Amino acid sequence: MIQNYRDLTRKEMEAIDKENTIVLIPLGAIEQHGSQAPLGTDMMIAEAMPQYIKKELVKEDPDFPMLIFPVIPIGLSIEHLNFSGSVSFKPDTYYHMLYEIAESIQHHGFKKLVFLVCHGGNRPVADMLSRQLRHDFGIFTFVLSSGAFLDPVVQATISPENHWDFHGGEMETSMVMAIHPETVKLGLSETGYKSGGYKGKKALNFSGAASINWMGEDLRTEDGRPIGIGGDPRGATAEKGEIIFKRSAETLIPALLEIRDWDINA
């Protein structure tokens, strides 16, 4: 049965089957998402995504054994700190904070943790930490990315005239419009382009086999002002956001079912 970790009493927690129950920990962020989307975009997505996952999971297993941990709202957002309102841990602070949460959870007998990454900048620490936790405590820590942004169904939501969609662009803005439309100021949208040393580069990119750690200032308007987003968000809609959330949840179900069936004694 999927429940919120915070809702259980001590007695109820004592009765949980710790060896087989998964603790899902959503990892969000507070950072700039352009002129049109809220600072809490990744945090809002991290709050909503487990509910979309729950809807899809119960179709496969109404008794799926999972506890949803409260969202960790702050993450690694160093690349956005020069934009007003962005907040970030330093990597070692973030690592130790997540480590100690996991240490507490495993202390009570849980053997399976899932970090649900809802901000890409959090992924490196989650990956590194998952191996350390297994070494230190013998628990199995899985890392899942929450946005299926490269999935063909999701890609099809991008407007044809949108030259590129990246951080804070059309897809993420659509997701926020699906859950908190009152926070989006679509009329203030500006288009972001790669700038500086990235111009004309084909082998080097923001991610992939050959990359450089980008900064928000590398994304600028056509007249050269730092805007910190990629592409044109003006085509965002709540309907597109629903498609992205649903498809992103669907793509995670096979992995979660395998985590459920993972033999911790093998």
Descriptive overview:
This protein has 266 residues and is an alpha/beta fold. It folds into two domains: 2-147 and 251-260, Creatininase (Rossmann fold, 3-Layer(aba) Sandwich), CATH 3.40.50.10310; 152-199 and 213-241, no CATH class. Helices cover 36% and strands 11% of the residues. The chain has seven helices and seven strands; from the N terminus they run βαβαβαβαβααββα. It has helices at residues 10-15, 41-60, 91-107, 123-137, 152-155, 170-179, 238-260, and strands spanning 2-4, 22-27, 66-68, 112-117, 140-145, 193-194, 219-220. A five-stranded parallel β-sheet has the order 1-3-2-4-5, sandwiched between helices. Strands 6-7 form a two-stranded antiparallel ribbon. Helix 2 packs across helix 6, helix 2 packs across helix 7 and helix 6 (170-179) crosses helix 7 (238-260).
Q: Stretches where pLDDT falls below 50 for ≥5 residues?
A: none
Beta strands, count: 7
For the sheet with most strands, the description reads: 5 strands, parallel
* Rg (CA only): 19 Å
Q: Roughly how many Å apart are the termini?
A: 24 Å
Total discrete domains: 2
What do we call the CATH topology of the largest domain?
Answer: Rossmann fold
Percent strand:
5-15%
Task: Briefly note the structural class of the backbone.
Answer: alpha/beta
Mean pLDDT: 96
CATH 2nd-level architecture of the largest domain: 3-Layer(aba) Sandwich
Helical residues, percent:
25-40%
**Major sheet: order of its strands?**
1-3-2-4-5
SSE series: EHEHEHEHEHHEEH
